[in-house]
What we know:
It is built from four helices and three strands; from the N terminus they run βαβααβα. The chain has helices spanning about 15-25, 35-40, 45-50, 60-70; strands spanning about 5-10, 30-35, 50-55. The N and C termini lie far apart (about 30 Å).
Amino acid sequence: MKDFITIKTYTYPFEYAILKLLLDREGISYFFENETMVGVFPFYSNALGGINLKVHQKDKNKVLQIINDLNTDSHLRIV
Length: 79
């Protein structure tokens, strides 16, 4: 976890459900910081600073491209 950086922050887990599948498909190492805590106590999300998507530095550009494609060119938009 030493070289992992925060790429994006979400408020609730449903906001990144599709993104998780795409990252898994690409074989990218990632984790969502605070995911379990917000899953148990959803209203703690803002107090904890949200759910942070952390990826390895070497995958940063690839992940940003996946997020961009998901939000612009895909019929699988995150709402």
